[in-house]
Amino acid sequence: MSRRGLLLPVVGFLVLSLGCAAAPPKKDYAAFHAANPRSILVVPVINNTNNVEAPGLFLSTMPIPVAERGYYVFPVNMVRRVLEDEGLSDANLVHTADTARLCNLFGADSVLYVSIEAWTAQYLLITTQVTVEFDYVMKDGKTGDTIWKEHKKVVYAPQQQSGGSPLAALVAAAVQAAVTKAAPNYMPLARQANAEVINTPGVGLPAGPHNREYGKDTVSAK
Questions:
Q1: Integer distance in angstroms from the first to the last C-alpha of the chain?
Q2: Dist. CA 42–CA 77, nearest whole Å
């Protein structure tokens, strides 16, 4: 058999493997549809990083994509004030509190808990890699059972420009990396993570009652 004949099956296998790996497994939405939440309480997030600004910045990116998916979302600043009045000023206390108690405070159907696992800018030679990583968990307000969860990591490193003087390109890349390291912009990555987590078919949130796609999601993974 020729070398070409030997390579074709191998290439075909690799393409098939890559294609299968690219598709995320679909979730079983039976518990979610049984709970049938119409409103979502987004509570303060747990910050497992050293960036003290991360929780507030991230929390500001959550309400819009969730609302656009078709759910009523309680204003996050109002939620924080009410929780503080209830003695739940720390996010860790909120996440360990009884879910039914939290929902009763606001008349919510479910609670969305998020923890920040990465919010960093790492200098790598002539570029700076910015990374955000989150864990999302939604629980039913009546039972406290988990009805949806997801994990998301987004990494960004500025692309190097081709052409021109190699030395000039190297200097420009080093300057760009230094600027990114000094003042990294995490917000676009946080918004991207939320959009992908919430809207990706088969793994994201099923459409809510205020979305025209409501009721069209499959109940179970196929």
A1: 40
A2: 10
Cα dihedral 145, 201, 27, 72, rounded to 10, equals 10
Q: What is the per-residue pLDDT for 217? A: 66
Q: Which of 24, 53, 41 is nearest to 137 (CA)?
A: 41
Torsion-angle region of residue 202: left (phi > 0), alpha (psi -120 to 50) or beta? Answer: left
> Do the beta carbons of residue 44 and residue 115 sit within 8 Å?
no
Instruction: Quote the pLDDT of residue 26.
Output: 74
Q: Which domains does the chain have, with CATH numbers?
A: 25-119+131-153+187-199 (3.40.50.10610)
Return the pLDDT at 129. 83
pLDDT less than 70: residues of the chain: 1-24, 123-127, 158-184, 217-222
User: What does pTM read for this prediction?
Assistant: 0.77
